[in-house]
Design goal:
Helices cover 31% and strands 15% of the residues. The chain has 157 residues and is α+β, with helices and mostly antiparallel strands. It has a five-stranded mixed β-sheet, covered by helices on one side. The protein has helices at residues 22-29, 85-92, 102-115, 121-127, 139-150, and strands spanning 2-7, 10-15, 48-51, 54-57, 70-72.
């Protein structure tokens, strides 16, 4: 089946097996390996991408469900070789430890900031409820979001 979508700002047409998950198309067919596979059950958030402005678990969607969608993966955060302010803040605040959860965290938080450029601490925590992290204890992640906001981040997709 021909799948047409916009991914990281670029139009894309790709022939996919209708039973293939969006995660697999992103990683295997499009070679965008920043999106991680963790639990394969929609529980860990490692596979989070932004679809039409909302954070979604790509392991829980068939690729065909993304037809005509606007997708952003973690690779789409950098622009012209420059990291997104949210990525910079994660580094500055030490919110990146083992790094496995980081792409999903970034995508969940970017989706939040695209909708709400000045969230409260509680809103930040709610946005990452579906993202598991075994290393940080989440404090550094919340601090990183607040730092990005302080640095006047433009929260465009």
């Amino acid at each position: 089946m021909l799948l047409k979508l916009k991914i990281n700002g670029k139009q894309c047409s790709i022939d996919v097996d209708p039973s293939k998950r969006l995660l697999d198309v992103i990683r295997e067919d499009l070679k965008l390996t920043g999106t991680k596979e963790g639990c394969s059950e929609g529980e860990c958030g490692a596979c989070t991408v932004i679809m039409n402005g909302k954070a979604v678990n790509s392991c829980m969607l068939l690729a065909v469900q993304a037809r005509e969608s606007d997708l952003i993966t973690v690779e789409g955060l950098e622009k012209d070789g420059e990291l997104d302010e949210l990525q910079k803040a994660f580094i500055e605040k030490g919110a990146v430890q083992c790094g496995f959860c980081t792409p999903g965290m970034l995508m969940s938080l970017k989706a939040l900031l695209m909708q709400n450029p000045n969230p409260s601490d509680d809103e930040i925590r709610i946005a990452i409820e579906g993202n598991l992290c075994r290393c940080t204890g989440y404090v550094k992640i919340v601090e990183a979001v607040k730092e990005a906001i302080k640095n006047n981040v433009v929260m465009e997709g």
